[in-house]
Amino acid sequence: MAPQRQLFSFCIFSVLSFSTITSGYGGTLPDNKPSTQRFAPMYSYKLGKSVPQEAGPERFSLHTLGSTLQSKRMVTNPFHPIHNVSGARPSTPAPISVDKFGAKGIDHTDDTKAFQKAWLEACSSNGAVVLLVPPHRSYFVKQFTFSGAQCKSHITMQIHGTIMAFEDPKTYHFPNKSKQQYWLTFERVQNLVVEGPGTINGNGEKWWQSSCKQNNITRTLVPNCNNDAPTAVTFKTCNNLTVHNLNFEKAQQKHVSFENCTDVKASRLRINTSEASPNTDGIHVTETKNIDISMSRISTGDDCISIMGGSQNVYVANIACGPGHGISIGSLGRGGSEDHVSDVTVFGSRLTGTMYGVRIKTWPGGSGYATNITFQMIQMDNVTNPIIIDQNYCDTATKVINGECKPPPLQKNTAVKVHNVMYQSINGTVSKDGQAIVFNCSSVPGGACEKIVLDDVRLEKGGAAVCSNVKPTYSRVDLPLNRCPNQ
């Protein structure tokens, strides 16, 4: 009878365990009714429709949203074996430290060659390998490309210390000044992970002082200026890429750029640079498909996130932006070029004290389109222009006379078409002398703003809506003064 009793006890224990796991997991109970005990979504989200599950000020809490998203993502299959049943520990190769190759991490010692050697060893290894930048040290590194063209391994680069650029622009060598310049580049590396919690510091103050871009505080231009400032960190043609839990500071120009990449996850990034720093975009996305940017804080002197031509399936969620120029699509169509951006969602984010909120900007004379774009659940706090579409964009280095760029665009009768844009659940306050909505759309036939929808938009304080060549659709819109005509 003893074996039977043991079998009976085991069966009862298994049934109770299964019920407990299923209930906690939020899956389907035996009566086929969904469980709501844990991991209840804060919003029922579908493209173009969002229904709050809870009311109150926590609706736009980044912490709450981040916790909810993280809780959902951390749920694992309860039946997946996560322990090594045999008791044997899997063999893990020791990390490859840059110190092994002579890196000192001492003030202004050039550690570039040590990083090169460490990368080559990691790249030539078989299987998974960890490249380590040890903590509590600052490693000064010159321009360098981490090339993955010959890599055999899946590399995880763990940055625990600080990687520093030399502050003197004379230490840089740019063989082709007509092209975009770079400091650190990861090129053609597949299945790469770059993670912190360390810091990448571009030491960019001297670059800012000589930039041809206007200083964002003094609004002045520098004589004998230059446009050579490099992007701090660039990922080029990388597939299945993860960038996680890193700090970026004082970039020479843009902080992080994703160029021609596919399947990217960037999360928990902290970007912190002076509001006065010119052209220091936080995260720059161009020619990149299937990218997820989430749970990050960005303070900078230009766009917190800029999404450029050739980008598709871009998802941005739980971003705290400010100061800066907001979250932008574009600029597109510069110099008469053809650009395409599609399927972009910006969700559950907060912008504080920024010049712009969510913006689409295209140059006159360009072509192509920006389409299927959703801005949803965005909190604006003291933002100058929370919602803006500008199809007559000219940057600060270009003269604007009577509303036109000088020199004039190459093709004056074309425009980058902007259509299928949804603004939903945009709430908050407009700064003094600001304008809640600006739709500066093109008068070019077939190139203007079309199918622009505003639903549940409530912006307090600030000024009116300013619109041209657009007929938006409204639902539950509350603005301080007026709205654009939709007839």
TrEMBL record:
Record-linked SMART domains: PbH1 (SM00710)
GO molecular function, one term: polygalacturonase activity
Keywords: Cell wall, Cell wall biogenesis/degradation, Glycosidase, Hydrolase, Secreted, Signal
Catalytic residues (UniProt): H325
Main location: secreted
Name of this chain's protein: Putative polygalacturonase
Gene3D superfamilies: Single-stranded right-handed beta-helix, Pectin lyase-like
Keyword Chloroplast annotated: no
